[in-house]
Design brief:
By secondary structure, the protein is of the alpha/beta class. It contains 8 helices and 22 strands.
């Protein structure tokens, strides 16, 4: 009889069975990268509750479904995705089940910015691709990052040139349409020195069946670059969503991030940031889940050089029998003097069966730093509910208002008006239903 560990390894191997259909890339580097990742997948296993980084997140359900990669995307038109339209967007890249959809996309190619995809323009950006694609995400001991890289056939590419300021957002939309399938979205964003842009990374579904999204995002900010990164996960509540994002900040760069998770039966978001001297980041997140959903966010903020600043606020609103996990680690290395870091995890339980596990962590190896962290888990304040009732609201309306306000604090930080309005409506609807 096979051991559980063998079965976990066999499952990863089974996901690779359709990999050979991928055609060889004109980029020798990419072929070598895929081969290396394939070897790592064969050597790794699916993480279990015995693994420290996964001890609150049981993904054994994932291994019971033989997801197959998508070979042909579903035919969609503009009407099919109109509900996900961001009116302010200067450019949009649409991938259907991981496959680029040119008829739904509006690429941008001019002197200051290139918004395109890997298979279309690899010859124009070979040096950039080789310098950054697969260089920032670590897959040596990460089975899902390795699996995504093994299937790396195309990717969203956003290249913002030196001194370019992009005032309108760029929208990258990943649409899932087929059940019992696996798709492997990939995004590479490079913001060169003294440039600025806002990017929305958006995961949605047009069907309610089970499927598997396994995404990797790499974001690189060169000196004095500024990126606003909004990540929205609103997939089917029967889906599995595992994502890895690596962000590299060079000197005096600034990364602002808001991540929102509403969907998926089981979701896991790993966000790793490396901060150079005088760089700054603000990393905010909201998970709003119910029924039997599980949403897990792991972040690692690495203060590698002096005088860097990090701010983090993560919130969870959990109803039904749902389970939210937050693990936020901040490391201050020995030579990272004058680090200024603050982290907060605030969590709201809406039912007695809901569960939250939160673990903010500080590892400090420098002397001259300002670092704080804290976590709270609780239910709505009865005095606040009573006060609103005294102003004429019913108890249910008061609870709805307070729950909405708790989540809206994160949504309010999104700098794209139409998307912010859409997500505020979603939070209002979800909190009303759960109450």
């Amino acid at each position: 009889m096979n051991s559980p560990q063998t079965l976990k390894a066999d499952y990863l191997t089974s996901l690779l069975t359709d990999q050979p259909y991928l055609s060889a890339s004109p980029l020798t580097y990419l072929n070598a990268l895929r081969a290396e990742a394939t070897d790592r997948v064969s050597a790794l296993t699916v993480p279990t509750l015995r693994d420290e980084e996964w001890r609150f997140t049981d993904i054994s359900m994932l291994t019971k479904t033989p997801f197959k990669p998508v070979r042909e995307a579903t035919e969609l038109n503009v009407i099919d995705i109109k509900n996900f339209h961001i009116e302010e967007a200067i450019s949009r890249l649409v991938f259907i089940d991981g496959i680029y959809a040119p008829h739904l996309s509006s690429e941008q190619k001019n002197k200051g910015i290139s918004v395109t995809h890997l298979k279309a323009d690899h010859s124009l950006h070979t040096a950039t691709i080789e310098a950054h694609l697969g260089r920032h995400i670590k897959f040596n001991d990460n089975a899902f990052a390795a699996l995504n890289t093994a299937f790396l056939n195309d990717a969203a590419l956003i290249l913002v040139s030196r001194d370019t300021k992009v005032t309108q957002p760029i929208h990258v939309l990943f649409v899932a349409t087929q059940k019992d399938t696996a798709n492997y979205p990939r995004l590479l964003l490079l913001s060169e020195s003294n440039s600025k842009a806002t990017v929305v990374e958006d995961y949605v579904s047009l069907q309610d069946g089970p499927y598997f999204t396994n995404s990797v995002t790499e974001i690189v900010l060169l000196d004095n670059a500024h990126i606003n990164h909004i990540r929205v996960q609103r997939e089917s509540t029967k889906a599995f969503h595992i994502a890895n994002c690596a962000v590299s900040l060079d000197r005096a760069s600034n990364y602002q991030s808001v991540s929102v998770a509403f969907g998926s039966r089981i979701s896991r978001y790993n966000l790793n940031l490396r901060l150079d001297e005088q760089s700054e980041c603000a990393v905010d997140g909201l998970a709003l889940i119910s029924e039997r959903q599980l949403a897990d966010t792991h972040t690692f903020i690495d203060h590698a050089k002096p005088h860097a600043v990090s701010r983090q606020m993560h919130k969870c609103i959990v109803g039904g029998s749902a389970h939210a996990v937050f693990n936020g680690q901040i490391m201050v290395r020995q030579n990272a003097q004058r680090t200024d870091s603050k982290q907060s995890s605030r969590n709201l339980l809406l039912t007695n069966k809901a569960r939250i596990d939160t673990k903010p962590q500080l590892e400090i190896f420098a002397d001259d730093v300002k670092c704080t962290h804290g976590a709270t888990i609780g239910q709505l304040d009865k005095e606040e509910v009573f006060y609103l009732q005294s102003r004429g609201l019913s108890e249910l309306a008061a609870r709805n208002m307070l729950t909405y306000a708790f989540g809206a604090e994160i949504i309010e930080r999104i700098p794209v008006s139409s998307l912010k309005l859409t997500l505020e409506k979603t939070v209002l609807e979800q909190t009303t239903i759960q109450s």
